Amino acid sequence: MFEKLQSAAPEDAAYFYSGSADANMERCCIGHLRGDFGRSGEEFWMTWFTRRSTLQTPDFEAELGKVMQAIGDQGVLKSRREMLRFCSQHPEARIQGGWSKDVYGFCMQTQEHRYYLRCFPFAGDYNFYVYCYARPERLAEQHRQYSSTPTAPKKKPGPER
Q: What is the pLDDT of residues 61-80, one digit of tens each?
């Protein structure tokens, strides 16, 4: 079972936007989902944008599906009206310095990844983005694992006869 969405900390604001992250965050960003509720506010449209394909593993994709289900179970992605209700219950989640005062940020963490949900519960723009990051400590662990794995020496080709 996944944890409930948490209101994001003010210092996490950069995690909710493309191009606003430093190089270390960029290395950890797997990609993001962008979605909206259509004209009626009751539809559901979503598109995936890959940022770092080497981190987009089958395990990550399976986990992302479960995370999206867990977020959906909390009602925030049911409709624009439900998103507004959810955001209104969490005024502390407003992203300070955002392009609008009505942008909210939430996060969810798993053992391997961090997910940052940015919500704009009004018509006229995309209603949500979910940025997906590999946890930096996990990347460092994987890097150590792969760099310490011995590789067989390459044989030099023998002289031609």
A: 999 999 999 999 999 999 99
